[in-house]
Amino acid sequence: MDWWISGLVLLLAFCGLWMVAVHLLQVALHIGRPRGYAPFVSILLVVKNKAQIIEGIAGSLARLREYLPPGAPDYEVVVVDDGSSDDTPRILERMARRFPCLRLVRMGEVNNASGQSAADIGLFLCRSKVVLFFQVSGAVTQRTVVDAARYLLGAGPERTAKDWVKSGEAQLPG
Questions:
Q1: Secondary structure (H, E, C), 31-100
Q2: Which of the chain's ends, N or C, has fewer CB atoms near its CB within 10 Å?
Q3: CATH fold of 41-167, please?
């Protein structure tokens, strides 16, 4: 009788190993995914006192879906306001009501007892494992953000990295 139980355990172990091997092969070959599968993407912007440019950047990102090819990944735009004292919060609140893909987080309204940065809070709130992150500062322009998002989402940038360097918006290492 013991040989029968041993044989059954051995058979179940073999079946389990076979199922794991088939699953790993499917993952490696992308079998079972719909054609044109693309992951969900989060675009994270951290801003402070950028009222003069934030409406253009966030608005362009929110309307980007209109220019994406069929099958492009779905996306969200998460904007973390890091304590702005200008009109940035009011502009972003108005835009969040207008564009459902835009989520606004105000650091003043977050229970941040651990003292995490705005970027850490934003990364925690992003729903995707794929995150395009920008700390919106003087060096970051609307065109730079939108071109990077277009490229990540499959529409291709309107300009290349060489164009960014020529314009003075970016510098290549070396």
A1: CCCCCCCCCCEEEEEEECCCHHHHHHHHHHHHCHHHHCCCCCCCEEEEEEECCCCCCHHHHHHHHHHHCC
A2: C
A3: Spore Coat Polysaccharide Biosynthesis Protein SpsA; Chain A (3.90.550)
